[in-house]
């Protein structure tokens, strides 16, 4: 087969970011192989919310229409959160307003999202049940991926899209002990509840008009509809925001829990949060980890990180995968540029790093701050005013970022420094 570039690419991890990257690179005629540890049988069946910046990145990658078609939502639409007291009588604290131009967004069931991306790829591009255990540089100067089944694969460029527990990140930071992955003192219980069941149980807050955040002290609940409003995606967060982050917990980080355990963690909360908690029958408990401090580089040798591998963050801005899609868009635009070739890959990756690292790391830090804000709510008039002030404009920098300008800046540097 004739390829458009004189370099080969291996993508470690076939999650949302790895697959989106594979689709765009193969469409540009680049030789790509994706190595995915799972068979996808265990993918968590939760929903994921995409802000306007994520929608623009997916459009730029040419995959948005395929995703929209599987979302159950006829068109992307604004998703502006309403913040409601978790205590009775569920006072409305704040309705987020945006000045962002065209603030369209989408919420989608994760397995449907993955299916949409896989359908856009030639099956020969993805190898399932291939868990990468390490990366090194071979005598030929190529990078070698080593897998748990004893096999290896060589490529000129490795894209680490292997999520929060990334093996590729260990190569980039150079040493396992230098990996800044920590437990954030946050637990999340995730589940999906039929909208009708909540209505029949007498829930008072409208959960389909806007995404809702029920606020509390050391806890909050995120709710948004998916599958054409028939199902509510729920995440209950319990946190100790003032505790310093702790070193990584032993596996497993995701465990099934009993209804009684969840109910006892949420007792003394208002009418609507308790209805939600009582309906989370098949929920999993997630111990939320994140990078703290953020990475000082997303690139080492010809290994480049995207998505959670680069900037695993707390989910409180609903922006983790959106940052991953921004990474992928910038990386794809640079790699597919007519003047990018094997000999200048190092310079091109350095520009990716210069553009993406400050942007994604600032969203990572904003996500942690937002969690502290949500979980410090104390139902007083003074507190309400403080929250309104702090929440105003919080998503504007995330949603309004100009990615085209980032790519242009990176290309300008490559031209000015005679790499192109
Ligand atoms: C409770 C919660 C709610 C969230 N809600 C949102 C939201 O609403 N909006 C949002 O933008 N973000 C949200 N996020 C964050 C979002 O889930 C992540 O940012 C996103 O999944 C990252 O995508 P990724 O492709 O980088 O990694 P992943 O989705 O984790 O994919 C990584 C892939 O790599 C594979 N893999 C792992 N290790 C290896 C290996 N060694 N070898 C080969 N393959 C490997 C995995 O099997 C997986 O398929 C949430 C996160 C949590 C925890």
From TrEMBL:
One molecular function GO term is: FAD binding
Domain (FAD-binding) spans: 8-172, 296-366
Biological processes per GO annotation: secondary metabolite biosynthetic process
Q: Which UniProt keywords apply?
A: FAD, Flavoprotein, Oxidoreductase
Q: Which PANTHER family match?
A: FAD-BINDING DOMAIN-CONTAINING PROTEIN-RELATED, HYDROXYLASE, PUTATIVE (AFU_ORTHOLOGUE AFUA_3G01460)-RELATED
Going by the entry's taxonomy, the superkingdom of the source organism is recorded as: Eukaryota
Which protein is depicted? FAD-binding domain-containing protein
Q: Which InterPro entries match?
A: FAD-bd (IPR002938), FAD/NAD-bd_sf (IPR036188), FAD_monoxygenase (IPR051104)
Q: Which organism is it from?
A: Lentinula raphanica
Q: Name one Pfam family in it.
A: FAD_binding_3
């Amino acid at each position: 087969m004739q390829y458009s570039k004189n370099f080969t690419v291996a993508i470690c991890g076939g999650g949302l970011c790895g697959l989106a990257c594979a689709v765009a690179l193969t469409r540009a005629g680049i030789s790509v192989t994706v190595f995915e540890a799972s068979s996808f049988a265990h993918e968590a069946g939760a929903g994921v919310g995409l802000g306007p910046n994520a929608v623009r990145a997916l459009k730029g990658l040419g995959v948005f229409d395929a995703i929209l078609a599987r979302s159950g939502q006829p068109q992307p639409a604004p998703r502006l959160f309403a913040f409601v007291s978790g205590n009775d009588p569920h006072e409305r604290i704040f309705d987020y307003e945006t000045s962002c131009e065209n603030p369209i967004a989408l919420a989608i069931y994760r397995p449907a999202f993955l299916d949409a991306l896989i359908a856009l790829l030639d099956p020969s591009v993805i190898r399932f049940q291939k868990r990468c255990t390490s990366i090194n540089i071979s005598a030929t100067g190529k990078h070698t991926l080593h897998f748990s089944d004893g096999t290896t694969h060589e490529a000129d460029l490795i894209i680490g899209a292997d999520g929060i527990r990334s093996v590729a990140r260990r190569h980039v930071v150079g040493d396992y002990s230098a990996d800044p992955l920590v437990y954030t003192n946050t637990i999340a219980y995730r589940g999906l509840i039929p909208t009708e069941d909540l209505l029949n149980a007498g829930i008072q807050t409208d959960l389909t008009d806007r995404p809702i955040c029920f606020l509390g002290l050391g806890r909050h609940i995120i709710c948004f509809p998916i599958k054409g409003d028939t199902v509510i995606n729920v995440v209950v967060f319990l946190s100790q925001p003032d505790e310093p982050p702790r070193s990584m917990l032993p596996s497993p980080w995701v465990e099934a829990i009993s209804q009684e355990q969840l109910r006892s963690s949420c007792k003394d909360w208002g009418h609507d949060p308790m209805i939600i908690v009582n309906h989370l029958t098949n929920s999993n408990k997630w111990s939320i980890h994140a990078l703290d401090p953020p990475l000082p580089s997303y690139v080492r040798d010809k290994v480049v990180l995207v998505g959670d591998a680069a900037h695993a963050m707390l989910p409180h801005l609903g922006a983790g995968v959106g940052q991953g899609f921004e990474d992928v868009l910038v990386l794809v635009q640079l790699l597919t540029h007519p003047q990018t070739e094997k000999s200048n890959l190092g310079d091109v990756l350095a520009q990716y790093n210069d553009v993406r690292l400050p942007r994604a790391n600032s969203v990572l830090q904003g996500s942690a701050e937002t969690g502290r804000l949500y979980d410090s709510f104390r139902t007083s008039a003074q507190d309400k005013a403080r929250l309104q002030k702090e929440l105003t404009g919080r998503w504007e920098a995330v949603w309004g970022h100009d990615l085209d300008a980032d790519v242009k800046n990176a290309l300008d540097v490559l031209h000015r420094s005679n790499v192109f």
